[in-house]
Design goal:
This protein is an alpha/beta fold. The chain contains 11 helices and 16 strands. The protein starts with 5 loop residues before the first strand and ends with a strand. Belongs to the UDP-glucose/GDP-mannose dehydrogenase family. Keywords: NAD, Oxidoreductase. This is Nucleotide sugar dehydrogenase.
Length: about 425
């Protein structure tokens, strides 16, 4: 065993090989590694960030309770390393690295390109390599098949390559990892068979498609579908406020239809690693071929503009009270991108806070899951004790959030559309 790889517990192991190595131990990779370990496989977790590895060893990671139990159970069996070369000693590789966009909404392929290049450089004959990170159509072939072939490894004969998009929903325990169907597309039929055999060790339902490209497009469709519908329901929320209707009541009524309708819910924007990012991989790729997709483009533009609308609405609400944003004391209640997670990636709250600060407001936030943050504009803030403010903006409805300090006369802008505490609530 490489000196860099050791179990997350205190003891070491002399095991000479692993069944699977998971490259990237974030919100997707760590639960994936734990699912494989719980299925009885010898698992190596690979992450270049020593701080992340230390947090995993100490159990200071944002996981569902069920995955925390798995992490504790895996202390002397799940090995972790910061050296990607150790992955060569596994029979299979799962690549689970982030695929974000930059501030200009252009795909940032840095982590994906590096992980795939490392996997290809250290691959050995007999290995199965499965890419799960959402990316553009053709990425599996370009980033894995080409460099493997350049090394003289025949894909489908010497090594086996497939794409199977991740479908983990952080903070949601209603859909256990192993119960969510896995879409699998191999570069060749033998690649698909190898990948399905691997993923079938923990996943109960596998759906094969004809190619890696079909699987890549599947994930882009899933999240673009969600993005378009989020943009649509946000527009209905704005229209409902104008018409003095409760949009949540309207959505609940529409959802009684047993066919042809799926409820989506409005909010302050879309955050996380999927909705605000993944469709841009499709738009970026199609732009190269000058194919215009006006519906998707409009939806993503609307999502990008949503946090700014929250700031403008805050200005209107305070103006109705005879004051402006400049000098106003504003409390943002919850800043994580979704309830009951610690994840700040692409959280609308970061842009909202920057917008409020730019307008001259004195901004503080309260979120028991996020002790500190740095906005895109570089402002550092720490979670403050909640208390009265000129305006409270309800952003993230964590379960168990303390609302006992709220007074009935507290002015509150509800960007969640579901706030139920005592306050003088106004709709976003």
């Amino acid at each position: 065993m490489s000196s860099a790889a050791s179990p997350i517990g205190a003891q070491r192991t002399d095991s000479s090989a692993y069944d699977v190595a998971v490259i990237g131990l974030g919100y997707v990779g760590l639960p994936t590694a734990l699912a494989f370990h719980a299925a009885g496989l010898r698992v190596l977790g690979v992450d270049r960030d020593p701080g992340r590895l230390e947090a995993i060893r100490a159990g200071r990671v944002d996981l569902l309770d069920s995955d925390h139990r798995r992490l504790r159970a895996a202390r002397d069996g799940l090995a972790v390393t910061a050296d990607p070369a150790d992955a060569a000693r596994a029979d299979a590789l799962i690549i689970c690295v982030p695929t974000p966009v930059n501030r200009h909404l252009v795909p940032d392929l840095g982590a994906l390109t590096e992980a795939c290049a490392t996997a290809a450089a250290h691959a050995r004959a007999g290995q199965t390599i499965v890419l799960t990170s959402t990316s553009y159509v053709g990425s599996t072939r370009e980033l894995l098949v080409r460099p493997l072939s350049a090394r003289g490894l025949r894909v489908g004969t010497d090594v086996f390559v497939a794409f199977s998009p991740e479908r983990i929903d952080p903070g949601n325990d209603r859909h256990p990892h192993e119960d969510v169907p896995r879409v699998v597309g191999g570069v060749t039929p033998r690649c698909a068979a190898r990948a399905m055999a691997l993923l079938g060790r923990y996943a109960g339902d596998l759906h094969g498609v004809s190619s890696a490209e079909a699987a890549e497009m599947t994930k882009l469709l899933e999240n673009t579908f969600r993005a378009v519908n989020i943009a649509l329901v946000n527009e209905f929320a704005d229209a409902s406020r104008l018409l003095e209707l409760d949009v949540m009541e309207v959505i609940e009524a529409a959802a009684t239809k047993p066919y042809g309708f799926m409820p989506f819910f409005p909010g302050p924007g879309a955050g996380g690693h999927c909705i605000p990012c993944d469709p841009h991989y499709l738009l970026w790729q199609l732009k190269r071929d000058r194919l215009h997709t006006p519906l998707v483009s409009a939806a993503m533009n609307a999502i990008a503009m949503r946090p700014g609308q929250v700031v403008e609405r805050a200005r209107q609400v305070l103006s109705d009270q005879g004051r402006g944003l400049s000098g106003a004391d504003v409390l943002v209640l919850g800043v994580a991108y979704k309830p009951d997670v610690e994840d700040l990636r692409e959280s609308p709250a970061l842009e909202i806070i920057d917008g409020l600060l730019a307008a001259g407001a004195a901004v503080r936030y309260h979120d028991p899951r996020v002790p500190e943050l740095v906005t895109e504009g570089g402002t550092k803030l720490a979670s403050a004790e909640p208390g009265p403010a000129d305006l409270v903006i309800a952003h993230t409805p964590h379960q168990g959030l303390d609302l006992g300090w709220l007074r009935a006369d507290q002015l509150l802008l509800d960007a969640t559309y579901r706030f139920s505490g005592p306050a003088r609530r106004v709709a976003l």
